[in-house]
User: Fold this.
Amino acid sequence: MSRNGAPAAPPLQLEFDDNSLLPLLFGEHDRHLARIEQRLGVRLASRGNRVAIDGPHSASEAARSALTWLYGRLRDGHPVDMGDVDAAVRLAVAGDGSDSRDLFGDENLIVRTRKRHVNPRTPGQVAYLRALKQHELVFGVGPAGTGKTYLAVAIAVQLLVEGKVDRIVLSRPAVEAGERLGFLPGDMREKIDPYLRPLYDALYDMMPGDQVIKRMASGEIEIAPLAFMRGRTLANAFVILDEAQNTTPMQMKMFLTRLGQNSRMAVTGDLSQVDLPPGARSGLADALDTLAGVDGIGVVRFTAGDVVRHALVSRIVAAYDSRDARTAP
Assistant:
């Protein structure tokens, strides 16, 4: 009986047709099932090729959708890890228990590169990948750890490998958090490279190292500070500006007007981490205001719920956002 005296709803029953995949679905010592129980507040009991899901209706439906999607990944030959489990739960909750292809397993949203297949893990990432495929200019704005740059690099590598663009251009403003380039040791390249390291890391995650080196040597992949973009027209390219919150309005206008024929552009940044001098207006904030409503431009705003790093990072972001909201004038 339920608390109000009504008969309790029977547990949902989920049946799988390939027992050999169940150890991978459930995880070592059933840790994947335990994670779903923890995140959704349900109880999962497995017996043979069946799983009984007991709990509130909406949470039980979300658990069923998450397990169904994870099983589908395994059946298609993709591995499942704890990050995939968390992603399945997030998407199931966002879909209100629906297991529709709109959120789960949409083939058009899977990014295929030489080293890995990348699929969205949050509702924000779903919207972002759609925007990157549909628009020639996309702004991805939100906290660290939401995959803004990583997914943009994945799309760029896919288009390069498929021959749909001739080159990738990755750029960042050389603005430092509390340091000055002139006081760092080394020549200009050695001073600049640390600021571009996240772009290198994303590239090496998508392509074999020898391919990255070869394509950089041939000019198919270019990584350069924002200052080096002035006076250029970037045609047949996928262009990414990372850490865009640290541009000035003039720099941002300069960068956006580099867009040439058959090119795409992604601009990513976090407006809560601006390292410009006090009082200086961020070029990213200025562009979002100026270009609001302009046809052909996509804007995706990520939230703390889209953070896919350690679960604690999401709570840290939410705490800072709450503090900022309380202290805002």
Summary: Residues 96-102, 177-181 have pLDDT under 50 and may be disordered. The first helix runs from residue 22 to 26.
